[in-house]
Amino acid sequence: IRYPPTPANSAGVNAHHDTGFLTVLAPGKTPGLEVQNNDGDWLPVVPVENALVINLGEMLQGITGNYFVATPHRVITQDWRYAVGYFHGPSLHTRLEPLPLTQKYFDAVAASPHHRDAGFMARMEETKVGVGDMSSAYKPTVYGEQLWNYFVRSYPQIVEQHYPDVFGSM
After folding, report:
1. Is 74 a member of any domain?
2. What is the pLDDT of residue 89?
3. The domain containing residue 83 runs over which residues?
4. What are the Cα distances from residue 114, in Å, to 11, 37, 98, 164?
5. CB within 8 Å of 110: residues ≥ 6 apart
6. Order of strands across the sheet with 84-88?
7. Taking a C-beta distance cutoff of 8 angstroms, is the pair 29, 104 a contact?
8. Is the separation of the CB atoms in 85 and 25 below 8 Å?
């Protein structure tokens, strides 16, 4: 993954969740990756030689009823940054059905505002009406829909160029 330097007064690679089950990232030596903690603060992920970063994805969040919450992260860097990522996700047709968890998991989510209120990446039409970027309650039923939502939000110019009929209806 190649990240360009963040222009002054810019947000870099905007805050987001990954859509899949989990992401394994070899972050490289250049700093810039940040994760958001439960209090909403952004913390730098300090590069550690030969270490991997594991981010939980929205698919895992959805099938566990928010017991596991997707990792909010972003990239802000002054230099070119290179990383190698493996984005683990299933077939695009995989149904996102909840796992059969015991009541203790549901009780734990209900007792934790961070887990109970955790949202998903908002669809483009939701952000137009004020839903926060990672605050959607919408849960796609198949993985491909979730990935498409991410693609449309992250790369609108490409979607508009190659799918003008779809983009115009959003």
Report:
1. yes
2. 92
3. 2-163
4. 24, 10, 19, 38
5. 116
6. 53-56, 22-26, 84-88
7. no
8. yes
Q: Does an H or E element contain 109, and which? A: helix 103-111
Distance CA 101, CA 161 (A): 43
Tell me how far apart the alpha carbons of residues 163 and 153 are, in angstroms, rounded to a whole number. Answer: 14
Mean pLDDT in each 10-residue stretch from start to end of the chain (170 residues)? Answer: 74 80 92 92 94 96 96 88 91 94 97 94 84 86 90 83 76
Q: What is the pLDDT of residue 9?
A: 61
Number of C-beta neighbours around residue 8 at 10 A = 6
Task: Please report, in angstroms and rounded to a whole number, the separation of the first and last CA atoms in the chain.
Answer: 28
- Look at the pTM and tell me if it is higher than 0.90: no
- The domain total for the chain is 1
Torsion, Cα of 62, 104, 73, 59 (10° steps): -20
168 within some domain: no
